[in-house]
Batch of 4 targets.
Target 1
Amino acid sequence: MDREMVERIERAENEAFTSMYRAAASHGTSMIEVDGVAAVWSRHDDDPGYNCIINLDVAVDPTATVGRIEAVVRESGASTLGIDGSPDIVAAVGEDRIRQLGFVPDYQEHMWGRRIDRGALEALGKPPAGPVVRRATAADAPEFARVLNVGYELPEESVRGHIFASTLGHDGWSHYLVEYDGEPGSASVLFISEGVAQLFVATTMPDFRGRGGQGALIRQRLSDALDAGADLATSQTGTENASPRNMERRGFELLYTRWIYGKRLGG
């Protein structure tokens, strides 16, 4: 996959984050842009991947920019700030500088991408029998948030599920629930921008894992993305769960592995 394609994918990821955090302001999210650098955060989530500076490489003076962003994030009461970016961003800023600013590697993510067309979708075969994927509506927001949270192994009322549910009905966004014998057990999101389908999140509650829900969600989102005119698809996954295997089986290419750097603010 060439660099232009990777840059499209990265822009789509960044737009997904900023769009969602604008929509979720009533749940304690914020965003700011300083010197062209965007940062998003939630006062109620201590994961640096969800409280992060996104495109630090565009800053003329990264140290000054981080300082200005960090001051605002601290003032908001957030407890964590992260730096989230590709290896190219880290190289441009300098890992030594990132560490000098107090950020340390927290965890790793894989970034995946693939081109999509009808032939590629047909090559995935028929949808698995059993799980039923349906579009979530605004009326499903509480249930969607609950399923997503439990799938993340978070408390049912964690703010993270409500943040993802905040974009229900917004342009570019689609939300899904997977039902197993009529009971919702998986939740997922799709965001489309610039012809890039961002398979943004997918979780399955423990009691429903191993029943084909993740594969069904990937296939449904790719189909809907094609219907919407997308020609590229991307997703982020952890490095140690089943998600990487799911992406590889469905033709996704590993673009790179990145560190999420975190700094505890003591808020």
Note: The two ends are 41 Å apart (CA to CA).
Target 2
Amino acid sequence: MMRHRWLIVVIGLAIMAGCSGGRDTELLGEPEPAQVTESDAAVEEWDAESGLDALSDSLEMFAHLRFYGSWFDIYPYGWVWRPIVVSDWAPMTQGHWVWTIYGWMWVSYDPFGWATYNYGYWVNDFTFGWVWVPTCEWYPVRCEWVTWDDYVGWAPYPAPGVRFRDPWESTDYDPWVVVPATKFKETEVVRYRTPPKFKAGSSERTVRREPPQSQTLERITGHSLQATDVTLDKIPMGGQQLTRVVLPPSEQAIVEQQRGKMKTTPAP
């Protein structure tokens, strides 16, 4: 009898293991992470916080992020960084857009934005929430775009194998921020976030997955776009080249003013 009970347990475990395979991230958007116990997560975080010794040399350029969040090693991304933020926070919501010689740039009010919106990917993990997956290649901005009619939408760039649903495919349309084109250049642009809408006669066929054209915005708003004079500060670090955007004093003053209104971790 006891032997039969053990046999049933073994068969049950085998069935459970067979049913715990991966899921299609291309369709579902957010991958299901490997199960991590609280004790395991604590050990992984402690290893990362101990001078980031567990990270490769190529990620030393992001060591400063430890002041604003924690590093975790999660499947299938490896080392990711989770910011310390309020519960309803989402990437690419606290900031504004500027037109530059490099194209559109996101001026972030998050103190960690110099890294997370010019490098890497974002994933809304089932267990950890929003986490950033680092890479060492710099871009003027890391986001996906949708534009149609008189609307502009953007979302943080997802990790390979992950697809964010289009903003009209979900009732809460996260992680997209969609605003009327007339409000795209506002300093507190997230205040104008709106549910996606299509004009009569328009449909998803009118959607363009590209940044808004400067000429189109000038036509819609009736104002000419002036390029913001930004420079790039390039510093050798950790075997890589760290690139940071240097804003002109007028833009930096806006950033400092907006950070004073936010509930975020203060700079060290």
Note: The first helix runs from residue 2 to 18.
Target 3
Amino acid sequence: MVCSNSGYCIHNYISGLTTGPIMPARPSPTHPTMTAQILCRRDGAIATVTLANPGKLNAIDLAMWQDLAATMGRLAADGEVRCVVLRGEGEEAFAAGGDLEEFLTARATLDQALHYHGQVADALGAVADCPHPTVALIQGACIGGGLEIAGACDLRICGESARFGAPINKLGFSMYPGEMEGLLKLAGPAVMKEILLEGRILTAAEAYAKGLVTRVVADAQVADEAYATARRIGAGAPLVAGWHKQWIRRLQSGAPLTEEEKAASFAFLATEDYREGLAAFLEKRRPLFKGR
């Protein structure tokens, strides 16, 4: 597929405009060089990871996938982080998928494709395996690789005008199984077949009904709600949050717990946070958890 601006190719599918000229890339007044990058900032115990590719609806190129994996790895090792919010730059898109323009050179052969999508799967794994809770703040288009990233997060908060899908059947390629796995676990085979076989773009209300998103709020409130969610998570005991993620994943395997695992589920008994939580309750005050 020859396209001077892959982000806007996807935009045409989102809008239902499959005919007509492709809109050219537009310089961003705040990012005149239109650099594709992963941004990361900390506000206390809450980290924000931003997918930024101005002019391409935050389409994700290979370097961004690699940087996303590295960024999530650094945050995973940071014991001061209580929650990670993932979002797209601006309000037009969370991410409109992979940067299709790059596919012509970076994914042209089998070896390249295996390497490329192995890197994508690694990035999704880094999001899914993050020991800290993750919240996807979704505004606008959440398509293809963007949907995969959001699906790897623990919670997904979106605005009413958000749109979801993976219309890659219109582009002639299939979703890599390593990328499909997370969405399949999230939404189930029936929803995955609907998304991939029809290539239809879902509204926020449809995505919520199908279990793809956690909460839908007014567009003007989505950022406030996502960060309020992160603060609620951050106010809890961080070790407990990590254990809850661990046990939910373990129970999804379907295998019965061993006696050792049952005993390990009470590891909280030896923590300072457990003693602090009980003391705060009895003293009618807010707990001050330290992750110990």
Note: Strands lie at 37-43, 46-52, 83-88, 93-95, 134-138, 141-143, 155-159, 163-165, 202-203, 215-217.
Target 4
Amino acid sequence: WVSGKRWARSHEEFSTISAAVTAGGRLFYIVDQSPNAYISFNPTWKLVARDAHNGLKLWERDIKKWNDHMRQFRSGPAHLPRRLVAVDDAVYVTLGLGAPLTKLDPMTGNTLHTYEDTEWCEEIVLYEDVLYLLVGSSETRRFGDGLYEKGEPRMRMERFLVAIDTKTNEELWRKDAKGEDYIMPLGVACSDGRLFYHGIQ
């Protein structure tokens, strides 16, 4: 119930949500809006913004190829929820599985900036006006059913951790994250003025 009125049901109640965050009185989430009547329907992924107080839809953006619901159980990718970050004045997201990082206006959904050389950005951490991005797929050796059989975007072999100033959109530094310096997925975090990541050594 909202303001004494019951929300109308929609198919989104029963759809798959891949990522969800909130900031500035708004909700942002990536959802599959394809019909639920038949499992073989192709997914229709969208980034949706709603008013957090009354649930009204503010805008939506298309997500290109994202996740395939026909993948084998627990086959991933596990990093998709870490591809969406929001603050009061910006939304940071990858608008596709192999897409670069994009900065959106949280009020309108319009693109404010697309960050070069960030294709296959796998994780986004925002800390004290600096974006820390783990770029390059951790699934380069994955084979099997699902997206690999259905035109999944080509994975980049390069993998690195990069810091970007959100005020100037300029790159501050980058660190190699493959080979002996490989950085594990789901392992980047910031706290108390420090950056932490999970390596293999």
Note: Residues 1-11 have pLDDT under 50 and may be disordered.
